[in-house]
Design brief:
Distance between the termini: 13 Å
CATH architecture: 2-Layer Sandwich
Strand order of the largest sheet: 1-2-3-6-4-5
Strand content: 25-35%
Shape: globular
CATH topology: 60s Ribosomal Protein L30, Chain: A
């Protein structure tokens, strides 16, 4: 995990080996008496800053891998994800690859389905990104 922020109830979360983000946090984790809430920044389908593919379904899987890396760095697992928003740059390509997207999902998330939204967008900050996923997880006390 990361260091506490200016508030003692928020901790910056960054997976081991990932570069320090600039101008945002990959995850912010609340501290308190009960469950902890992890707010995840949008994650895209790249590996170490490189896009290994332009395929939407494969980028979806890689973006999920990155979401799960942040959740795991905070001490959680896939089943702790409570809310997810998926942004895609091409709704038609998404619709045409539902079977492949579903396979990517099942490999990583099994039958866990958080509250979700899918949003079509005209573009993302990284021009090659076709998918971005942001999420919120509710983690049990360690």
């Amino acid at each position: 995990m990361g260091a506490p922020l200016e508030h003692d109830w928020l901790t910056n979360v960054n997976p081991p080996g990932w570069p320090r983000p600039r101008g945002y946090a990959n995850g912010l984790l609340t501290a308190g008496e009960g469950e902890r809430i992890l707010f995840l920044a949008g994650q895209i389908g790249w590996v170490n800053g490189v896009f290994p593919t332009d395929d939407l379904a494969e980028q979806f899987g890689l973006a999920l891998d990155n979401v799960l890396a942040v959740v795991k760095a905070a001490g959680g697992e896939a089943s702790h994800i409570a809310r997810m928003t998926v942004y895609v740059t091409d709704l038609e390509a998404y619709r045409n690859s539902l079977r492949q997207v579903g396979e990517q999902w099942r490999q990583r998330m099994g039958r866990h389905f958080p509250a979700m939204a899918l949003v079509g967008v005209t573009g993302l900050v990284e021009p090659r990104a076709r998918v971005e996923i942001e999420a919120t997880a509710v983690l049990p006390r360690p």
